[in-house]
Write a structure and sequence with these properties.
The complex is a heterodimer of chains A (275) and B (294). Chain A has 12 helices and no strands. By secondary structure, chain A is mainly α. Chain A has 2 domains: 51 residues; 218 residues, MetI-like fold, CATH 1.10.3720. The radius of gyration of chain A is 23 Å and the shape is globular. Chain A starts with a helix and ends in a 5-residue tail after the last helix. By secondary structure, chain B is mostly helical. Chain B has a single domain, classed as MetI-like fold (Orthogonal Bundle), CATH 1.10.3720. Chain B is globular, with a radius of gyration of 25 Å. Classes of the chains: A mainly alpha (275), B mainly alpha (294). Chains A and B meet through helix 1, helix 3, helix 4, helix 5 and helix 6 of A and helix 2, helix 4, helix 5, helix 6 and helix 7 of B.
Chain lengths: 275, 294
């Protein structure tokens, strides 16, 4: 009987660990949300009263409308461009075998494996010399570096699932490459494209390092503005920083929830190597 | 002319080079221009210091304890947290794999990864602070007499790396664990192997390649900790990690050459540790056993 009791204790210990982690995670998020609505909060479990004034303050003080607009522009451009470059490349990578294909694959894997801060500093240096850093285009270019390969890696298995005879039939009926893409492949690849682009969207909203290294005062995204707000904590009330953090969380998590309708959570970390 | 061009085209097609293959060019050029070129540029730039000989940046780095010590500081943060996250991930992943409905748990765990380090840093500042819920709970249960200091020091950075790192290693390990054919373990059980033996002699060898990759990726992430080391740590002292020094060289001293040198050293340390890990993998994992799935 001993091993069975041991096994049960072990399972109990593992679930306690998971529960403890999730509890702390939710409490961390909860304390930010509660603080952002609280009036005064000193030596009690909950604030003395509730107010929405911190949101009004954050909205005006941190210039949230401008920041949200920049964030939307950056994210929109990154999503569209990485889709336009990445999907055709993924199609070619999935369908053609050519000399040096493995080297090209390695080239696409590298930006996903090397952490952003390591390549971000030399990249920002080059972008500053090209007078692109500090502008919104510098931020967009920097964010495209990991997202283009990301789209390619996600899309390859989706392309491989399509029967090549469908394309052959389209070719026989006289469809050129552009028509093949727009009328045959894109409709068939829609689930994959949606998954890839939604993940790119979530990643770009949350991409701190590359945006931080290349953005100027007028090209900050929400996450960089949040960093500066936390960095300069003490200048403004903590509650208004938390209000901004809540705005950031909502922006990110809404898109995450939409993305999770199309992908499995494990795919977010495994970079969708397997379907 | 066209008679001469046609065979060339056909010959290229034999190699798999046609108009479809050309679709790779924009993406490849993009990565070459904005990833490979800057990296090489940074490498060359690092040998053209503002003052001194071609190695001046590197000799300066290794002569100044305020600079070279950042490697040790970063390793002291990154190595324990990586090992902790991976070691915790394995039993949890082995247990979660038995669940039929993993979706809720994996969704909750993907949240901190999605929120990112800046948000986690701000959350932990509120939650772990002297008046935060964690310290209140500890005081309430009489576990401590005065609030524990968990922010603006080593532990703040450490905990932020657990919050973002553990879900990452767990989800990665889970994807490797679910790739192992359950029949192998059942066969072991039928032949009388206890759980511990089944783990040591069946699961662990099959998991070893995946674990080596998980360790490498988790280490690289922890080693490049940046925003939380500033916001949640003590960036002037115990959490003055190497990425802070690289950032300061570039954007506070405007010495791009030195910053590139530090970035190259950062890459070199990462490469070294990954090579060691992958070499260690071949020591643990010998033989042609396939995991069946990737």
């Amino acid at each position: 009987m001993r091993p069975r009791i041991g096994e049960r204790l072990w399972a109990w210990a593992v679930w306690t660990l998971v529960g403890f982690f999730v509890l702390n995670l939710l409490a961390m998020i909860g304390s930010v949300v509660v603080n952002s609505f609280g009036t005064r909060w000193f030596n009690t479990w909950l604030p003395a009263g509730y107010t929405s004034q911190w949101y009004t303050l954050a909205w005006n003080e941190f210039q949230l409308p401008d920041i949200l607009l920049v964030t939307a522009e950056v994210v929109g451009a990154v999503v569209l461009i990485s889709g336009a470059i990445g999907v055709p490349a993924a199609y070619a990578m999935a369908r053609r075998n050519f000399p040096g294909k493995q080297a090209v694959m390695f080239l696409f894997l590298l930006p996903l494996l090397v952490p952003p801060i390591t390549y971000g500093i030399p990249m920002a240096t080059v972008l500053y010399q090209a007078h692109l850093a500090g502008t919104i285009w510098g931020v967009i270019l920097a964010n495209l570096v990991p997202t283009v390969p990301f789209v390619i890696l996600i899309m390859i298995p989706f392309v491989e699932q399509i029967d090549p005879r469908v394309e052959a039939a389209a070719r026989v009926f006289g469809a050129g490459l552009a028509r093949l893409f727009l009328q045959v492949l894109v409709p068939l690849l829609t689930p994959g494209i949606l998954a890839a682009l939604l993940l790119v969207l979530v990643r770009t909203i949350a991409m701190f390092e590359l945006t931080f290294l290349t953005s100027g005062p007028t090209s900050q995204t929400l996450v960089v503005a949040l960093y500066y707000a936390v960095f300069a904590a003490g200048v403004r009330p903590g509650q208004s920083i938390d209000a901004m953090a809540v705005v950031y969380m909502i922006t990110t998590l809404v898109w995450l929830l939409i993305a999770l309708r199309f992908v499995n959570p494990t795919q977010i970390v495994t970079r969708a190597k397997r379907q | 002319m066209s008679a001469a061009r046609l065979p060339l085209r056909r010959r290229l097609r034999e190699y798999g080079l046609d108009s479809v293959t050309l679709l790779i060019i924009p993406a490849a050029l993009f990565v070459l221009a904005l990833f490979i070129y800057p990296f090489l540029y940074g490498l060359v730039l690092s040998f053209h210091p503002k003052a001194g000989g071609w190695l001046a940046n590197y000799t300066k780095f290794f002569a100044d304890p305020f600079l070279y010590d950042t490697i040790r500081i970063t390793l002291v943060i990154a190595v324990p947290v990586t090992v902790l996250n991976v070691v915790l991930s394995v039993p949890v992943a082995l247990r979660v794999r038995l669940l039929r409905n993993q979706r809720l748990l994996t969704t909750i765990l993907v949240i901190p990864i999605t929120l990112g380090t800046v948000m986690v840093a701000e959350g932990l500042l509120t939650y772990l602070g002297p008046r935060g819920w964690l310290n209140r709970t500890l005081l309430e249960f009489g576990l401590v007499d005065s609030p524990v200091r968990l922010v603006h020091n080593y532990w703040g950075v450490m905990l932020s790396l657990v919050i973002t790192g553990f879900p990452f290693t767990f989800l990665l390990t889970l994807s490797y664990v679910t790739g192992i054919d359950p029949a192998l373990e059942q066969a072991g059980a039928v032949l009388g192997a206890r759980p511990r033996e089944r783990f040591r002699r069946i699961l662990l060898p099959l998991l070893a390649p995946g674990l080596a990759i998980t360790l490498a990726l988790a280490f690289v992430q922890a080693f490049t900790v940046f925003p939380s080391a500033i916001l949640l740590g003590a960036p002037a002292g115990p959490t003055r990690v190497i990425s802070i020094v690289a950032y300061q060289a570039a954007f506070e001293q405007y010495d791009y050459s030195m910053a590139s040198a530090i970035a190259m050293l950062m890459a070199a340390v990462q490469l070294l540790i990954i090579t060691l890990l992958l070499a260690a993998r071949t020591l643990v994992f010998r033989g042609p056993v396939s995991t069946g799935k990737g």
